[in-house]
Please model this.
Amino acid sequence: MGHRFAELAFTASVRDAQQAMGSRSSYARMEQGEDHHNRLGPREAEFIAARDSFYMASVGETGWPYVQHRGGPAGFVRVLDDRNIGFADFKGNRQYISTGNFRIDDRVALIMMDYPNKARLKLLGRVRELDAQSEALSRLAVPDYKASIERGFIVQIEAFDWNCPQHLVPRYTQPEIEQQLQPLREENQRLRAQLAACELSR
Model:
């Protein structure tokens, strides 16, 4: 019972490491009380819906983890309800490592980043694949995005946790930079126009 992410992530060896490093007592409190951090709330839903990329980890038969970057237009990850998210799997390099891994182990770990605001959401879940003929895949389609959709993935959320912003370096996409520069450009144009008017009036 308690913080669901802690229940899944804080194994015996992790608890031993926390004890040795002096952080165990504070984290032990997370494991008390009713289950929580296992259903997405409005904050999580809004954050997920705004993302244009995330990192996804799976595990194959060799036991090695595989981490992959997934991207698309902002909002390509759909919050279906408080326990499920989904996204279209766009055609890529065709290695199919994550796809193959999920067919033998449906567990997945996701990290979603908001670099400008130094925010990070971690999710643990179980993946279900939708093939290209699935009617449910239409819910994950992205209008006006020209990439080919090969399949879809539905992730049933088992747990989530927000990370602290320490050590996160703000980074900005080109549209975010353009948005921040726009007021400066407009001010520059006004000043140039005022300067030109002053020179004409001399």
About this structure: The first strand starts at residue 53 and ends at 59.
